[in-house]
Amino acid sequence: MSEFASGTLSAKNIHLSFGSNHVLRGIDLHVEKGTTASVIGPSGSGKSTLLRVMNRLIEPDQGDILLDGRSVLKDNPDELRRRIGMVFQQFNLFPHKTVAENISLALRKLRGMSKEEARDEALAQLDLVGLKHKADARPANLSGGQQQRVAIARALAMKPEVMFFDEATSALDPELVKGVLALMTDLAQGGMTMVVVTHEMGFSRNVSDIVTFMDAGVVVESGPPEQLFTDPKTERLQGFLSDVL
Amino acid sequence: MDILNQLADTFFDWEAMGQVIPKMFAIGLPNTLILAVTSGIIGTAIGMLLALMGISRNAAARWIARIYTDILRGLPPVLTILVIGFGFGPVIRELTGSTSPYPMAIAALSLMSGAYIGEIFRSGIQSVDKGQLEATRALGFSYGSSMRLVVVPQGIRRVLPALVNQFIALIKESSLVFMLGLLATEREIFQIGKDAAANSGNLSPYVAAAIFYLALTIPLTHFVNWIDARMRAGRPEKKEPDEAAAVVGKGAQA
Fold it and tell me: Best label site of A92, A97, A166, B76, fewest CB within 10 Å?
């Protein structure tokens, strides 16, 4: 049974251009409730942009985004983003606030919790990522791995239905990657719906239910990890895998 | 040695200084501080408004802020003070019956410093990493709330040294308001020194005024250096190894 109130997320025929640069050219992605989809591909293939379109940090030019089967493009985008947690490559913690305040800010201002309630909830979330003892530290005094776990706790505190990870381990020193991946694995196994843009092929292969390979703004291949990693159909995926594995 | 004695008499006539120093403490120093602090506060408010207009998504607001800033930063302070003091003084006299140019002095200083402070705030806010706005918006905050709660506070913090520098400039520029002919009780450090020098024909009161200004500005300058160094280096910190990370969660065994 899922520990989370997860939802099903679909992107249908997403197009996006920046001027003459056609970044996304008709992307389809379907992430069933409680499953993990990883998105792999070379730099500049549009993976990170796709995440930002799916939570409407960037509005698509064309296409539809469905959460639990219902289009969310007409909703207030701020309210949509409260339902989708996002974790960034550079953590993006608020450096002028303590670790606990990083988490309680949105709980107080967006969920209307009192200061005490929000702090209690922040401490509970920190406990889940093993950093309760750092509640009153500043982000700058934490290691990269600890900062990223705080960022994950900050997103989880909003009780999201879907979690996005945008190369969450790419900025970490190698020895710190493991802890963050372990936490992400934990979430996946706990039944969180997740979209994980990653260069960690081990994670993609072992943890995700479906792998999507993107290149130059299109989905080149998509399917179960075993199929993509052992029997890539396209030359582009074969080339990519031989470069990264 | 005659020349040295003459210079010593001109600049370091202790008696002339002794006569003017009590007045500088009683009248000059409070007035200089009132002028600098009041116009510093009003200028900060104007500056914040200009900075928010300057980064606004509304082109008209950006233009107004740009034009205001270009003009007020481009004029010599003495010209601005004279134009505002003599130009608007009579209007105020009509409206309020007050003949004191003091409010006009504060207005002129505020408007000038507002232009500089606006640029300081704008550069600070724009220097905040765009990931901060993105992360705040990803949590579900609106653009306005994200700026107010996360981006602007960080922008202000990092320009604190520049703001204190601006306050130092205000202390010095407040001396220019003597041009407006202030009442005896409204005179600030410089004018008291100037009056005393004119009466005695000796320049020592200027030296006394200089000491007052330096007593204000040098500590502030070092305060700026101190916060600057501290912000650069950060508070002494200790990081601990990330070993605990590996054992969090069931995923560790996967």
Answer: B76
